[in-house]
Design brief:
2 copies of one chain form a homodimer. Chain A is mostly helical. Chain A has helices spanning 8-15, 18-28, 34-38, 45-57, 76-110, and strands at 32-33, 61-66, 69-74. Mean pLDDT of chain A is 83; it is low at 109-118. Chain A binds chain B through residues 8-10, 12-13, 15-18, 21, 24-25, 28, 30-31, 64, 66, 71, 73-74, 76, 79-80, 82-83, 86-87, 89-90, 92-94, 96-97, 114, 116-117, and chain B through 8-10, 12-13, 15-18, 21, 24-25, 28, 30-31, 64, 66, 71, 73-74, 76, 79-80, 82-83, 86-87, 89-90, 92-94, 96-97, 114, 116-117. The first copy, chain A, binds a DNA duplex through helix 4.
Chain lengths: 118, 118
Amino acid sequence: MHEQTLNLDIIFAGLADPTRRDILRRVAGGELSVTEIAQPYDLTLAAVSKHLKVLETAQLVIKRRQGKQQLVQASPQALRDAAEYLHNYEQLWNDRFDALEQYLNVEQEHGPQNHPHL
Amino acid sequence: MHEQTLNLDIIFAGLADPTRRDILRRVAGGELSVTEIAQPYDLTLAAVSKHLKVLETAQLVIKRRQGKQQLVQASPQALRDAAEYLHNYEQLWNDRFDALEQYLNVEQEHGPQNHPHL
DNA sequence: TTATCATTCAACCAGCTAGTTAAATAACAG
DNA sequence: CTGTTATTTAACTAGCTGGTTGAATGATAA
């Protein structure tokens, strides 16, 4: 389906850290250098650099060098892949819960039995 | 926004494991007991039980007891929350990349400079 | 070349994760 | 009660994660 190896493991793992999600939020607004990214956090540059490597490996961001700086920008494909994955389940589960709801309505007409609680 | 504490950390961490995503896929098709869930994997029941606890903590599944068995079913809210999170970024990033594309088109009329590579 | 700024790498550490085996608990059947 | 089936808990382990400090690298400026 996709040209590159889509790795949901590392995409979701990349998203599973609040500092990294905050970085994503901030670079979504425009390119930032590593030092700029690090500024709000009580972390060393080395730690932030590691977070960026995780995001880069997951292809959630890309970096380009501009002079001394590395500029980081959002890269939407990985996130789209993750969203697509979730969306499929949403669809499926919505259908299932609709079916369950209907089943429960029918049940009520016949009197209560043991049925899964919502 | 949501009645319960929405914890994206543990939702995404829950999704970041292929066995757990496979379990989700299978319970999306209908309730399964722990033993049924464990059957296809080369894992002990204890290991599967731990995976289920992770999914349950993330509220990606719920369990109910039926006699000796624990029946596991998908619980859509956490997944919806994650999807909603991603969808916001998709939106934002799509806008951003549209803007960038437009910017690049204007640039071409004026001759090439150093601009971010897509 | 030397100094400076921006970033990464290497080595290390504490805590977490995903697995194991073995024992414990829960629900039911006789 | 006793045994059987289903699942969880406890204790342990190897490897991963997220952080640190200090040295190394890359790019530019003087």
